[in-house]
């Protein structure tokens, strides 16, 4: 308000009203985004970044994991990259401290179900119960956590996209998978990431479900290489 040129009480009042409306809108935004209200999630499976161009969105599945996640958080902090963590509910219950560290670092949370089941034949009611339990586990660790995405284990979607969207979570797919679940060597993972990068791709990686040290080291090496080639890192699109 310090730059307001006072040209009479009418103008000042109008400016104050405008500021109040702007503040009210700002205050409303987080409430919309935390899943407690209409979020605009759709059943479409998004696999691209919010912004186009030479952008990639890194996503890490199946954690949190006490061996890999702390080192991964270190790597992402060093390179100033924010990622999406698709959390396995039982692992969340075992390592709530790691979920808090993920959230505190500003990364985005994604529901990856309670027990990593193939839900392709599940009823909507059973899916909903599992997704609710997973969100509850995450919010036991991080109260009021935003969980804007859902990813089906094995990409076996079945009826999950509609249920997730109804719960305010956007189904999150991927465009590039480098098969890091069968670790082929750090150098090979770096090569697959560099060669597989396409504009706007959501990239599937893993920090849980096994020894993912090669993935973490590959991410550490490939981020500066991709940046040097003009790539930048961002989040996935928020809706389909
Ligand atoms: Zn998974």
UniProtKB/TrEMBL annotation:
Alphabetical list of CDD domains matching this protein: CE4_NodB_like_6s_7s
Keyword Lipoprotein: no
Domain NodB homology stretches: 54-234
Record key words, sorted: Signal
SUPFAM superfamilies, A to Z: Glycoside hydrolase/deacetylase
GO terms, biological process: carbohydrate metabolic process
Pfam families, per database record: Polysacc_deac_1 (PF01522)
GO molecular function annotations of the record: hydrolase activity, acting on carbon-nitrogen (but not peptide) bonds
Residues of the signal peptide: 1-33
PANTHER family: GLYCOSYL TRANSFERASE-RELATED (PTHR10587)
Name of protein: Polysaccharide deacetylase family protein
Protein species of origin: Streptomonospora mangrovi
């Amino acid at each position: 308000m310090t730059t307001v040129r006072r040209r009479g009480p009418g103008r000042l009042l109008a400016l104050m009203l405008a500021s109040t409306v702007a503040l009210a809108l700002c205050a409303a935004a987080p409430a919309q985004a935390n899943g407690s209200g209409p979020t605009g999630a759709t059943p479409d499976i998004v696999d691209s970044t919010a912004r186009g161009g030479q952008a990639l969105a890194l996503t890490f599945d199946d954690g949190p994991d006490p061996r890999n996640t702390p080192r991964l958080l270190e790597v992402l902090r060093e390179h100033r990259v924010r990622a999406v963590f698709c959390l396995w509910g039982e692992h969340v219950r075992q390592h709530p401290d790691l979920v808090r560290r993920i959230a505190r670092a500003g990364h985005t949370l994604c529901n990856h179900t309670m027990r990593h089941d193939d839900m392709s034949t599940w009823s909507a009611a059973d899916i909903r119960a599992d997704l609710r339990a997973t969100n509850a586990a995450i919010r036991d660790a991080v109260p009021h956590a935003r969980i804007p995405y859902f990813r089906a284990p094995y990409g076996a979607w079945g009826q999950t996209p509609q249920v997730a969207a109804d719960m305010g979570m956007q189904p999150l797919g991927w465009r590039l998978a480098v098969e890091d679940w069968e670790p082929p060597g750090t150098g090979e993972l770096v090569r697959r990431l560099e060669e597989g990068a396409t504009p706007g791709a959501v990239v599937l990686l893993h920090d849980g479900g096994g020894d993912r040290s090669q993935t973490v080291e590959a991410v550490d090496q490939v981020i500066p290489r991709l940046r040097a080639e003009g790539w930048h890192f961002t989040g996935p699109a928020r809706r389909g």
